[in-house]
Design brief:
The protein is 51% helix and 12% strand. A five-stranded parallel sheet has the order 5-2-1-10-11. It has a four-stranded antiparallel sheet with strand order 8-7-6-9. Helix 7 packs antiparallel against helix 8, helix 8 runs antiparallel to helix 9 and helix 19 packs antiparallel against helix 20.
């Protein structure tokens, strides 16, 4: 099988090879931002309506003065936006959500200074999304350094995340009490978690309140696309998507083919017939176009364009974009200087350039989010003691654990047991003449030798179990290292919740993220605690 190219590496080292797919330019060059700002100055936005709706929403969140001021700045024609987005995971979900938010905050501040005009950070919470399995669980390192799960009850029922009620504190409290290690910050973190959950009406608000607390020092605007006032603002764009859905499909196919020809693997796989909008009735269903009629996926009743447009006029809150059209709805609503993606998003955004063209837009600058590995003092010590690199930890430590046990074998276990097997083989060979006594003796000897060897196998397993117990301290150290740095054989940032470190180090942990250099690529940074 042909190995696919890595778009992250190509973008970072040979941007000219993928420039066609990222038309607003190299995120490492300031001239890209200057050119993009000039383009946005030619566009018009519903700034007053957007700011009014955002102000109302953020009053409910109890947003900081800094955030409220940023929203006011959106009313000004010269104000631009750096934006990112993510689903509303439990307690913000994995670490990369916080890294996305901090990259967005930092890039907005940097470009405000360099461009000499207001640039504000926005977090688009994917409250329309209904992928329950993606958000229902998060992991916190407990006092023993093991992964402890915090999970929502139920299956989501196919509804958008923003329509899911926040769980009762009692359903979360016991899980957090068991997950969070004792520390000077534990009581205050639990108190904040309880406060936010009791304040939230739904999972989206719970997410926003928690992430807002983590970054309150800097300020961040949140956007919940499920709110009716935002749906009304987006309705004209939904209408254009319905009208041009065939052109959108063609544009996606053409750009995807170009992406694949360069050796990249497509992230968005079209099966044909997608209108790239969802309709909630109340379950969120994809609208499809088959045999010149519109259908909701899994339903037999056809719709016509007029009926869909009528419903859009009456109830825009029932409509929502999918992965293909969310970026162009964002482009319609916000003067987007740059979008901050993760690695997977970067890949699918590369397929969307012609979709933007279809609506007369130009894709924003794609600025890679921070990628970080956090190393506690204990993990740093383990890496040094075992002479391990991070790459070796990411590759899995099973072989290292086995080697660790064998290197501490001062009794030559296998050699001794192999000697025993040789003696057994020789002893039974010496019994060979007994077969002259009776025809069945040969079978008895074979079966008896098999039983003896079975017992030797059993002995071998028990001795090695005992040897592993002798190496218990070293094995625990390796397991803790793997659980912390590469949990579930994945990257730390994709599994661990930020509270794993906030409960141990307080909000100073977030300060450390804010101090990392902005490199404009996905190169991994270390935070040593």
């Amino acid at each position: 099988m042909k190995e696919m190219r890595n778009p992250m590496q190509t973008m970072a080292t040979c941007f000219e090879q993928v420039a066609l797919f990222f038309p607003s330019g190299d995120p490492k060059l300031q001239e890209s931002f200057e050119r993009r700002a000039a383009y946005l100055d030619t566009r018009n936005y519903s700034r007053e309506s957007l700011a009014d709706a955002l102000q109302t929403y953020h009053k409910k969140l109890g947003a900081s003065t800094e955030t409220q001021q940023m929203i006011e700045e959106l009313r000004q024609k010269e104000t631009l936006v750096v934006i990112t987005g993510q689903q509303a995971g439990i307690l913000t979900g994995p670490l990369y959500t916080l890294y996305k938010a901090m990259t967005t905050i930092r890039l907005a501040k940097e470009q405000r200074e360099k461009l000499g005009r207001p640039v504000v950070p926005v977090f688009w919470i994917a409250s329309d999304d209904h992928d329950w399995l993606e958000i229902r669980e998060t992991y916190i390192l407990n006092s023993e350094g093991k992964l402890s799960s915090c999970r929502l009850p139920g299956d989501g029922g196919g509804k958008s995340v923003g329509n899911q009620p926040a769980p009762a504190w009692e359903k979360i409290e016991e899980q957090l009490m068991g997950a969070m290690p004792d520390s000077e910050f534990r009581a205050s973190v639990l108190k904040q978690c309880q406060q936010f959950l009791e304040q939230a009406d739904n999972l989206t608000q719970w997410f926003a309140l928690t992430l807002q607390w983590l970054v309150k020092k800097w300020g961040l605007i949140f956007f919940d696309p499920l709110l009716p006032e935002f749906k009304r603002l987006a309705a004209p764009m939904f209408e254009r998507i319905l009208k041009r859905h065939l052109e959108v499909g063609t544009a996606l196919t053409e750009r995807t083919e170009e992406w694949v020809k360069l050796g990249f693997e497509p992230q968005i796989l079209s099966t044909g017939g997608e209108v790239n909008l969802f309709l909630s009735v109340p379950e969120r269903k994809l609208i499809q176009y088959i045999d010149e009629k519109f259908y909701l996926k899994g339903k037999e009743e056809p719709w016509d364009l007029h009926a869909l447009n009528e419903l859009l006029t009456q109830a825009p809150e029932k409509f929502s974009p999918n992965v293909v059209t969310r970026p162009v709805v964002q482009e319609y609503l916000f003067p987007t200087l740059s979008y901050v993606p993760g690695p997977g998003e970067l890949n699918y955004w590369a397929q969307l350039g012609k979709v933007f063209d279809t609506f007369g837009f130009i894709m924003p600058i794609l600025y890679p989010r921070l990628s970080v590995v956090v190393l506690t003092a204990s993990w740093q010590k383990s890496l040094k003691k075992e002479a391990l690199t991070l790459g070796e930890v990411y590759g899995g430590l099973e072989k290292k654990r086995e080697r660790c046990v064998r290197e501490r074998d001062d009794q030559h276990i296998d050699e001794r047991l192999q000697g025993l097997r040789t003696q057994i083989t020789n002893a039974y060979a010496e019994l060979g003449p007994l077969k002259e006594i009776h025809p069945n003796v040969q079978d008895w000897l074979i079966k008896n030798e098999e039983k003896v060897n079975f017992q030797v196998d059993y002995l071998k397993n028990k001795v090695w179990q005992a040897q592993r117990k002798r190496c218990r301290v070293a094995l625990i150290r390796l397991q803790e290292l793997e659980d912390g740095v590469a949990p579930h054989h994945s990257r730390q940032e994709r599994v661990l919740n930020p509270l794993s470190f906030v409960v141990r180090y307080g909000l100073s942990f977030v300060d450390r993220i804010a101090e990392l250099p902005m490199t404009g690529d996905f190169s991994e940074h270390e935070i040593q605690l």
